[in-house]
């Protein structure tokens, strides 16, 4: 259980307010925010004074009015207080949501996105995410997957801000998944590997947003923008697999003045009731949730009495989890300091005050298989303890002890199987991510490069070359030749006696064959080959006079290792060439890591 955390932030006076010689009516002290109604004369006490100055307490009150004053709260400070919590939540596997609420021009976009050189929460969060990923990957051997999507809701319709060729602009459908809840159908999701990937997407999305805004009469102040990061983290934690998924929503809401349906001007009325629907519903949802939590401990009454109208708008439906559900949620209410905005500012402060009462139920989103593995392991530990006890009181031969032992073995086998399944699944994810069947891991001071596919490792005769080249030999054909070949070559090489179309590798059902083309110079383990010849684990291949490779077949190697273990194969018989006398790591290349 966790309440929605609420921060209020006041921006500097803008040009218009200064031109109107507006007076500042906002005062912040600690986490308190006060607003003064200048229409009520000063100098009274009691009731009247309470009407003149209203004070609210939030989790944070951020004074960003004057960058030269001492209580000034910068973008960095906002990120340190709020953004780093969201970051922590992401790494712990919780969902999180930050939404900015306030009238148009009060600083929502500034707080969420920021200006060039003065980044807001979203870019700072993403940068922090990748900084931490880099640090964790280095020390923990954890792996990560991050996906970004960015959408806009305008007039109850959803638009993908990251779709490049968008002919149909505003009509993505919102659907409901039986387990995962509401989602936007066909919303594009973009894998991101580093911060600059995110930056690029963010920029494209923002441009998309403002372009529509100028051509369509200030859409951006009337639309809600939701930037979402799906973040998966997998690792082995003392040999126990762990996988968590968290969804982070960062939301820049439409100007709150649009929520006030009664105050709609003629122009806005013409656009129909839709324009405010999401914001009005958000208000209703917040009210309902606040009422619910204030009903106190009486759970029965609570459930019957309060209906939360999530389904009434697209925004609330999509953010259902963030409001009263499985999420750590933060609201930032932004306000103007000027007396000319008294009405709107007071209503924002009240809104924020109500949001404080929402209680969420964040839980760690653990992969279901991983949870099962953990439960089984606990059960194994329990059974083992029981067996030890049984041993002590000489119960071991009794039928109970036997069945217990049986159960223990069953559980252990299941854990092994599940762990293997999980590892495979995660490896697969990682492979798709990298589009390669490669994994790097540390071993002592070395770095081991693992691959599951048959591959060639370049053995370069150039003393000055330091990189390591690995070519995968995928199922099917891999062509090797020069750049100037008339057909496209999969592996491009240069060097003495290398033909433009030199040879091809055929990988069929796990059998890899080298096929020399048109009399090209190919040799395997020092023997010239002119016909197709099947390759075995560890073979050394020379193409032309200078391109030398070691052929690795990880699956075959694994089988050979099994045989060696059971004594069918002697270590000696595995040594195929002088270059591969060590059979310890047949499918892996050890790179010496001097650091
Ligand atoms: P909104 O998104 O709520 O409509 P903006 O974020 O676009 O409002 O802010 C309106 C203007 O005020 C922008 O020019 C923005 O740069 C400026 N602004 C808002 N908040 C601050 C702040 N805390 N410090 C400095 N400038 C701000
Ligand atoms: Mg804005």
TrEMBL record:
- Domain (Kinesin motor): give its ranges: 3-358
**InterPro entries under this entry?**
FHA_dom, Kinesin_motor_CS, Kinesin_motor_dom, Kinesin_motor_dom_sf, P-loop_NTPase, SMAD_FHA_dom_sf
Instruction: For this entry, list what GO says about its biological process.
Output: microtubule-based movement
The record's subcellular locations are: Cytoplasm, Cytoskeleton
Binding-site list for ATP:
102-109
One GO cellular component this record assigns the protein to is: cytoplasm
Record Gene3D superfamilies: 2.60.200.20, Kinesin motor domain (3.40.850.10)
Could you confirm whether the keyword Transmembrane appears in this record?
Answer: no
What PROSITE patterns would the database entry show? KINESIN_MOTOR_1, KINESIN_MOTOR_2
Coiled coil stretches, renumbered: 373-421
Keywords in alphabetical order, please: ATP-binding, Coiled coil, Cytoplasm, Cytoskeleton, Microtubule, Motor protein, Nucleotide-binding, Phosphoprotein
The Gene Ontology terms for molecular function here are: ATP binding; microtubule binding; microtubule motor activity
List the Pfam families hit by this protein, alphabetically: FHA (PF00498), Kinesin (PF00225)
- What protein family is recorded? Belongs to the TRAFAC class myosin-kinesin ATPase superfamily. Kinesin family.
Question: What is this protein called in UniProt?
Answer: Kinesin-like protein
Organism listed in the record: Dissostichus eleginoides (Patagonian toothfish)
